[in-house]
Write a structure and sequence with these properties.
The structure holds two protein chains of two kinds.
Chain A (H helix, E strand, L loop, with lengths): L5 E12 L2 E12 L3 E6 L5 H9 L6 E6 L2 E2 L4 H7 E4 L11 H11 L4 H15 L14 H12 L6 E5 L7 H16 L3 E6 L2 H4 L4 E6 L2 E6 L1 H7 L5 H9 L1
Parallel strand pairs in A: 3-8, 3-9, 6-7, 7-8
Antiparallel strand pairs in A: 1-2, 1-4, 4-5, 9-10
Helix pairs in contact in A: 3-4, 5-6
Chain B lengths: L1 H16 L1 H21 L7 E7 L4 H12 L3 E6 L4 H9 L2 E7 L3 H8 L4 E5 L4 H25 L8 H7 L1 H36 L1 H7 L4 H31 L7 H25 L3 H18 L12 H7 L3 H15 L3 H30 L1
Parallel strand pairs in B: 1-2, 1-3
Antiparallel strand pairs in B: 3-4
Helix pairs in contact in B: 1-10, 2-8, 2-10, 3-6, 6-7, 8-10, 8-11, 8-12, 8-14, 10-11, 11-12, 11-14, 11-15, 14-15
Classes of the chains: A alpha/beta, B alpha/beta.
Chain lengths: 242, 368
């Protein structure tokens, strides 16, 4: 892992929807293996930015590279190098646990034997061996979430994008979820996560705080607290949002 | 290709796990065919008929009695003058008025020829047609009986049989129509729903982020439905043959190829709808309004397009099912080949290309 290596580079990214500017000249970098928190109130423009980085949407202007590839010309290669987990967890409820893993691993072109072996490994580490033949509908929310994350990083992407991954779960489950994120980061996967839970911001290596389409602050949680003379991230956020 | 296969397997699992989908896919064709073939036949029952009998002789009364004795009709009284005719029709209960000319019986005996006028309420064109046909059949039957009584030559009357064969003709009309309807439902409705379901569940985004190309996603989603629609088309042809005695006069291969073409048009429409609809409900709603209703109403399947207002007749030209039904009827019933249906085939082909091109364009706009 090389903390000096930039895996996401964004320069003057602008996204307009008609007259509305959702992203106003965003500029930031994310280093390899970093857990990068993308914070902001609802409607601040963080999901728009994340969608552009994932290739779900094209920017109006700006220079952007993801995993070393240009987002205008190398989209296909970017897609192979990233993982994505949305707010909705993206698992098929009418498919069984192992069928979901097999499907997602399959669309990333992994071999059948490899998938089989890794699946057993994964289910064991998550403690989900007993439910491998259950439908996703039958699993509690927290389990689904962990599984969704594991599926998103199953093909060992260099970056994983998480769009408000912990919405609607209790603090204990959230903490367990973050253990998975740390594990991924430890394995060298860069984590780009949007959230509006301020306690989660504390877990990130660095955070950026967006307000009305602009990045207002970008630093480590400790650095931000020092700059805004705040006790916690909540106060930092309130100081910026006013 | 490996990725694609995994995708198609996943789609099949979705279909197998969803009881409602299975029901629509396999019970619907059989049920609809039987409903349209048997229940919604063109049979008449209890149609009210009035009589304006200016002759009032034995023959006119016998004919009247014979007509009213059938299950199809109910006697609604005699009219006193020709002025009443319009009034009775306007009341709306009476669907047909039979007018016997003065001296009906005499002319029939003397000149072997007399006139009966059948006035039908053609505001419901189909029923009017049937009522007139049935009545004519009964009158002919009566006249035949007269000849026999009078010691005249016995004649075999194939025309009467034809008239009573109405339900068979109905099945001939309905089978191609039901085929169009079912292929439309399975292909267009089901595809638009299954694609919008991915949008609703949020899985579509995950698919779009993955290395799968949009075209692969769409093809992966529709492939199972092509297979199932095709099975349905074959089922209908087989059922039409064994249950309704509907022959395939022309080339079976041509018929199946045309079915595949129509399925492709319907799938293209389904994909097109799914690019507009955000939820499954919306997809269902659009499919109903844009596909099913026109297929039922404007394709000439149940209601003859010729009797419709001009504007609806124009509209019927953009209904794909209209062309498909023409093709199926030509190939199945008349046994014609490509030389006679190439125009309709071309129209369907153009429609398919148009909708696919538009869907791909809309798909790209959505991404931007």
């Amino acid at each position: 892992m090389n903390r000096d290596k930039k895996v996401i580079e964004v320069r003057d990214m602008v996204k307009k929807f008609g007259d509305f500017t959702a992203n106003d000249h965003l500029t930031f970098d994310v280093s390899e293996g970093e857990i990068f928190g993308f914070l902001g109130a609802n409607g601040a423009g963080k999901t728009t930015a994340l969608r552009i980085l994932c290739g779900l949407s094209l920017p109006t202007s700006g220079e952007i590279t993801v995993a070393g590839y240009n987002i205008y010309t190398d989209r296909e290669r970017i897609k192979q190098s990233i993982g994505y987990m949305s707010q909705k967890f993206s698992l098929y409820e009418d498919l069984k646990v192992y069928e979901n893993i097999r499907f997602y691993a399959g669309i990333y072109g992994l071999g059948r034997k490899y998938i089989k072996a890794r699946t057993e490994q994964l289910l064991e580490s998550l403690g989900l061996q007993d439910v491998r033949n259950k439908l996703i509908t039958e699993l509690p929310l927290g389990w689904r979430q962990k599984l969704a994350f594991s599926v998103a990083v199953f093909h060992k992407p260099s970056i994983v994008f998480l769009d408000e991954p912990t919405g609607g779960v209790d603090p204990v489950t959230r903490r367990q979820f973050w253990d998975l994120i740390y594990q991924a980061s430890h394995d060298g996967i860069t984590v780009f996560v949007t959230t509006h839970y301020m306690d989660e911001a504390e877990y990130c290596d660095r955070v950026s705080i967006m307000e009305a389409g602009k990045i207002e602050a970008i630093d480590s949680p400790g650095g931000l607290k020092a700059t805004y003379k705040a006790k916690n991230m909540d106060e930092v956020f309130l100081a910026i949002a006013r | 290709m490996k990725r694609f296969r995994g995708f198609v397997i996943k789609e099949f699992i979705h279909i197998i796990r969803d009881f409602r989908t299975l029901l629509i896919l396999f019970a619907l064709p059989a049920v609809q065919l039987l409903i349209f073939g048997y229940v919604v036949t063109n049979e008449l029952k209890d149609i009210r008929i009035a009589v304006f009998d200016q002759s009032r002789d034995r023959f006119s009364r016998d004919i009247t009695n014979k007509i009213m004795a059938s299950d199809y009709f109910i006697f609604d009284g005699y009219l006193e003058s020709s002025h009443d005719i319009e009034a009775r029709f306007k009341e709306g209960m009476v669907k047909q008025i039979i007018v016997f000319e003065p001296d009906f019986g005499h002319r029939l005996m003397r000149e072997k020829k007399a006139d009966i006028q059948l006035l039908a309420d053609a505001s419901d064109a189909n029923t009017a047609n049937l009522v007139v046909n049935y009545t004519t059949a009964i009158i002919q039957d009566y006249i035949l009986g007269l000849h026999t009584d009078a010691g005249g030559p016995l004649r075999i009357q194939p025309e009467v049989r034809m008239m009573y064969n109405e339900s068979m003709k109905g099945a001939f009309m309905f089978v191609p129509g039901v085929m169009a309807l079912i292929l439309m439902i399975v292909s267009a409705l089901m595809t638009s729903i299954t694609i919008t379901r991915e949008k609703e569940m949020g899985t579509m985004e995950t698919l779009l982020v993955s290395p799968l190309r949009p075209l692969q996603i769409i093809l992966g989603k529709v492939t199972p439905y092509v297979v199932l629609s095709f099975i349905n088309a074959v089922t209908i042809v087989v059922m039409g043959y064994f249950v309704f005695g509907l022959p395939v006069q022309g080339s079976l291969a041509l018929l199946l190829i045309e079915c595949l073409l129509f399925i492709s048009v319907a799938l293209a429409l389904g994909i097109f709808i799914s690019t507009m609809a955000e939820t499954q409900q919306m997809a269902m709603f659009y499919s109903m309004i844009m596909l099913l209703l026109p297929t039922i109403l404007l394709s000439g399947f149940i209601f003859p397009v010729e009797n419709m207002p001009v504007i609806l007749q124009w509209l019927s030209y953009i209904v794909p099912a209209k062309y498909f039904i023409i093709i199926v009827k030509s190939v199945m019933l008349k046994g014609t080949g490509m030389a006679f249906v190439w125009k309709e085939t071309l129209v369907l082909l153009v429609m398919m290309i148009f909708f696919i091109a538009n869907s791909v364009r809309r798909f790209k706009i959505r991404l931007a």
